[in-house]
Design a protein that fits this description.
five-stranded mixed beta sheet; D-Maltodextrin-Binding Protein, domain 2; alpha/beta; 2 domains; 13 helices; about 350 residues
Length: about 350
Amino acid sequence: MIFTSLFVINAIAAEKPIVLKLADTTAPVGLRGNGTLFFIEEIEKHTNGKVKIEPYWGSSLLKGKEILKGIQDRVVDMGFVLPEYYSKEMPIHSIFNLFPQGPIDFNIAYELYFKLFEEVPEFTAELESFNQKLVYLNMQLPMAVICTKPFTSFEDFKGKKIRASSRWVLGMLKGANAVPVSVPWGDLYMALSTGSIDGVATNLDGEHRTKLDEPAPNVFTMREVWMATPLMYTINLDVWNSLSKDIQDGLMAAGKAASKRFAELYANEFERVTSEQKEQGCIVTPASKEDIEKWVTMNIIAEQQEQWVKEAEEIGIKNAAQIMERTKELIDEAIEKEKAKS
């Protein structure tokens, strides 16, 4: 009888799922939130329920800039890592924003990112220096400028105080004759409402989800200008190495499956968001081909790429020029692939 009871207890213990804590900055809504929900659902599916994810939404446990170290220190097992938060810690990943034009199709972008990580091992090495492994990624909608003043062409950048998060995008705004400004994300609604800034240049879905297009209803969409930095989900390497091979395979399969679901959502999200903006009274103006050409050919872009190589070499990245060149080649190949597809 005692032996039978112990056997039952051990069997129940053996079936107890592995619980992994995951930190994210978003709520489980919208493009970003659904992208994370897809991943959580696919993990449980592809591990046959052996892994359960305990999500911490909306920076409830760790703020965006704390997640990289939080995963490294095992505060959480997994989490959302946005390289833009860590320009000094992740200089190699900061290279993405130096390429304003890339594939719009998420499936092509997804292939591009993983090809980059495969052919430019420095990306993986940089993550591993923080004891982390990439298991899933998605991306944001392309760039849009929302403004409190009329904004219908490239020339309307001139003189306007526009906020961006990336150092390199701020430089591009200056190249377009705007006045680049840095304001914390949480302060943007008030800054737009009070007129301390004129506009915000970032991903269309983020602007709409946080209602920034209410005080800034003039929307200038730049669909051919991708938000190049991938939204990455990483796992602590010690945690990863402690998992059995079948669980590891399940996590990677879950990432691929979640990406396919995300691609379906992403494909229609631009139209959905702009339709909602028009319904709420926004003036939505798509950038012309000429506007896009002016943005992506600004002299400042080549200058910034040279600056990145110089700074990278100064901090010990000896093959910085090769990383820059191979990244450019692969992005160009992806753009051509997309053109051929359309």
